[in-house]
Amino acid sequence: MRTLKALCVICLLLGPVITGIAQQSMDIYLAIGQSNMAGRAEIPAKLTGEMPGVFLFTGDDMTPWLPAKNPLNLYSSIRKEESMQRLSPAYSFARSMAKKADTKLGLVVNARGGSAIAEWMPGTPFYRDLIQKAQEASTFGVIKGVIWHQGESDLGKLDTYLGSLETLIAHIRADLGLPELPFVAGEIAEDQAGRETFNQLIRRLPDLVSHTAVASSKGTKTFDEVHFDTKSQLKLGKRYAKQMIKLSR
Question: Selecting from 3.40.50.300, 3.30.1330.40, 3.40.50.1820, 3.40.50.1110, what CATH number does the domain 24-248 have?
Fold first, then answer.
């Protein structure tokens, strides 16, 4: 009985939020990849509040959307423990995109630290979760684009990586029925030897696949040789937004 009463209170409190979203078509973006997209950078106190006009998809039937705030990978179906989820480039990406949007902005963040691109290929659990979440979220709006940050786990597979990424993009577009869905891939951190070769590979993506772009990691830094620090995550997110806006024109 207490549980039922508690649920009723939650419904009363969140009802206006859910209804408001359902009545207005959102611009929805998918944020996927491995640990840098999940976010490992420190979240400063000034970045802990809700983002105006931005909502985060929870996947919950009762409350499918909540006002977005850090950490944004909290509702990922494939994430590692909650304590590892920190600042993602999706944060400054969403803030930048929201300034340009004419409607509410929705984020579907589903990232997993340490994941290789093979784990994201069509038919895998990660891919099925991504498509399911995207389809569920799309009942509240229109999917406008994908931001992808992954590659640290595939530095030894440069000969096959780009082909795998092309396949992934093609299947996402086909399964969502959006053949020209904008897709922005991010470069990995540049401050370690050997990674420039991977970034050079990623930069070829727009020449091979239409409606794609690359967010540069130039001038960024890591705090542990792999993960972007706070300032760099904010910088990278803005670059994702800049490229997404270009693709959306």
Answer: 3.40.50.1110
**Angle at alpha carbon of residue 75, lines to 146 and 58, rounded to 5°:** 85
Counts for the chain of helices (H) and strands (E), in that order? 8, 7
Domain boundaries, the chain: 24-248
pLDDT digits (tens, 9 = 90+) for 170-203: 999 999 999 999 999 999 998 666 789 999 999 9
C-alpha neighbours within 13 Å on the C-beta side of residue 183: 27
At 151 the pLDDT is 95
What burial class does residue 137 get, using C-beta atoms within 10 Å of its C-beta: 0-12 exposed, 13-18 middle, 19+ buried?
buried
**Residue 4: per-residue pLDDT:** 37
Distance of CA 123 to the CA centre of its chain: 20
DSSP for residue 32: E
Measured torsion, CA atoms of residues 48, 49, 54, 58, in degrees rounded to the nearest 10: 60
* 67 membership: H or E segment, kind and range: strand 65-67
Alpha-carbon torsion (185, 212, 144, 116), positive or negative? negative
Which SS3 state, helix, strand or coil, does residue 203 take?
coil
Q: Which two tokens stand for residue 39?
A: 């976010």
pLDDT given at position 24: 54
Q: Tell me: the pLDDT tens digits for 12-36?
A: 344 444 434 544 589 999 999 999 9
Q: What pLDDT does residue 20 have?
A: 45
